[in-house]
Amino acid sequence: MGHTVFSALDVQTQSGVCTITLNRPEVRNAMSLTMVQELLGALRHAESTADVRVLVLRGAGGHFCAGGDIADMAQARMKLAAQGADGGDPVADFNAQFGRLCLAYARTRLPVVTVLEGTVMGGGFGLACVSDVSLALNTTVFRLPETSLGVIPAQIAPFLVERLGYAQAKRLAVTGAKVTADQAAAIALVHQVLPDAAALEVALQGTLQQILACAPGAIGMTKDLLARARHETAESLIDDAARLFSRAVLSEEGQEGTHAFMQKRPPSWVPQES
Amino acid sequence: MGHTVFSALDVQTQSGVCTITLNRPEVRNAMSLTMVQELLGALRHAESTADVRVLVLRGAGGHFCAGGDIADMAQARMKLAAQGADGGDPVADFNAQFGRLCLAYARTRLPVVTVLEGTVMGGGFGLACVSDVSLALNTTVFRLPETSLGVIPAQIAPFLVERLGYAQAKRLAVTGAKVTADQAAAIALVHQVLPDAAALEVALQGTLQQILACAPGAIGMTKDLLARARHETAESLIDDAARLFSRAVLSEEGQEGTHAFMQKRPPSWVPQES
Amino acid sequence: MGHTVFSALDVQTQSGVCTITLNRPEVRNAMSLTMVQELLGALRHAESTADVRVLVLRGAGGHFCAGGDIADMAQARMKLAAQGADGGDPVADFNAQFGRLCLAYARTRLPVVTVLEGTVMGGGFGLACVSDVSLALNTTVFRLPETSLGVIPAQIAPFLVERLGYAQAKRLAVTGAKVTADQAAAIALVHQVLPDAAALEVALQGTLQQILACAPGAIGMTKDLLARARHETAESLIDDAARLFSRAVLSEEGQEGTHAFMQKRPPSWVPQES
Hints:
The structure is a homotrimer.
Chain A: E1 2-5, E2 9-14, E3 17-22, H1 33-47, E4 54-59, H2 70-83, H3 90-107, E5 112-116, E6 119-121, H4 123-130, E7 133-137, E8 141-143, H5 157-164, H6 166-175, E9 178-180, H7 181-186, E10 192-194, H8 197-212, H9 216-231, H10 234-250, H11 252-262
Parallel strand pairs in A: 3-4, 4-5, 5-7, 6-8, 7-10
Antiparallel strand pairs in A: 1-2, 2-3, 8-9
Helix pairs in contact in A: 1-3, 3-4, 5-6, 9-10
């Protein structure tokens, strides 16, 4: 069990589950530059901590995330206007940092679960898209407000396509995408819609149990392979997949999994019920 | 407001909405070579007309489109048989022109809405696939009759995959794809199914309002970026996306969007209710 | 009509339909090395037999397929442990053979229908993913147990992505994927869920009739084109698609299709009702 102090996040690890809570409830957890940097730091720390097996991403105060912070954005914009072309582009820099954050969460070998309450907008919508499993309250509201503000969903564009498919992503971007929880479930932006906070916590625990029943190394290898299968042909993956399979079979996990199966007992990585 | 006369189309522009109506009701708006050329011309004209902000594609006489025109196809085929290999291939030429038409509508920066009534077959099915938003009557019937006629859905194949995903496209092509409006909604070929003509017009107006509330330049940039994200990796897009975001923020639209947001008024691109 | 004897399969051909039945009911049709080799042999034989127009893949004894055979796998693993690095890698070899099998069924020009009953696990889940149309009983249970056994769904990874999309594939792999028939239908792993064996056979006959009403050569060309459209851009396919369309129009099928249409009779490839 651990508790690391951040300024825009609350991060707690318990029984292999690292819960990262966006913690700026006074602005519905809008993403400041600090929050972006801390989210990346918290991920890298979790990835390098041996006993962390799954990430939960959620928001404090009844909202998930209202998107980019207007104040930080305005500051970057003023800097840009003040310094002219020579001084670099702080708006693009901030935006690219957010892009690297999305990519890091999209490609981490750790399973990522998002708990979606209240407002899920802009960059928050993007974080929902990169997670492996998403649970939402039935009152949650999803939006891509960028085009209605004269800007664009830039860094999350690839992850809208990954999560929703190109056609649904296009439809949502063109119409401003005000989506209810049930509509979000229909397009698999959300995997389970729950009626109240208690049911949401029960569903979260159930999802975590399913994930913790799977071997962590095997999950990581599978996530890597599925990511490659997005852009590489099936034919070109056969030999690499075979090598990875063989390696998995001979690994400690693979041997423990077989023994446990033959001995009709849970393998060592399954948490014991207390 | 404008009204351009075509022989196989009716094109009207009002309040930023360019409505292109396939207008050969005597053959359920089957696509002749003339219609293909006019559809491309109408699109290029709309794209270069500053006040056109959205395209609506629909059919006259209660049908959307019955696919390629058999008569024009037979003529091209007879020409091909008569002239032999030396004289080029008019069947392939006609077909490639239709392919370029589909691509032009699929990749235009303008939002495209299809209104689907009656018959939606072959090439008409393809046009439904390339649009951003599709509304249909509950009596609309969708079909890919090509393979049952001994030919193939050639030019629309990529757009079946874009809209429905590879697996659903394969299933429909193999089975001849007789799909009801509700089934079409289940595979996101259609985004809203309406019970009658009045409800269809209300839904269309609602969709147009959503689209017109978004900034036109921002929509165009977003459509371009989403198209790139189909085949390029997320990683390779980060820097370009950041530059585009910065450019959008500094654009007239981006500045007007921010000012309007701070002043709690609708931005200038939102049509005033009359 | 033909009946070829295999040791792990039963293969029957009647009226253009080749039914391949996984036939190791004592182990819920678990896939042995022999079965993998025979499945590939049966496909190649069907592809080269002129009157075979569609493949049906199903399992004997109330189950579809429980995945890789543990005994064969254990043997390969012991061989690997015994011979060391010099003697090659029998685990990877077995796995790669299964990968080539999946690819062969995924890319065959013949339509493939799976009939899914009882257990559909691991490699069996993969076979369901590569088929064009899948029918299931409402009691069928789907699972990807690999990661819970410490190994990975290696060869089926590309086909999970093809069938379910990247995001759903990721979710299922991370959670161990215990999926009911109705849940499988919601993610288009299954196209029709039937309440009992009699309804399942009726649905199968209906699907076969739809497929047999389409021209076999045209289906093959369409499947090839759709597979290319997964990774190639729409723009790059226009000219090839036009050439293929022209070839289809001038083919025997294309001519028979047009004549039959004009003469208001079914084309020659449609089976006559007896």
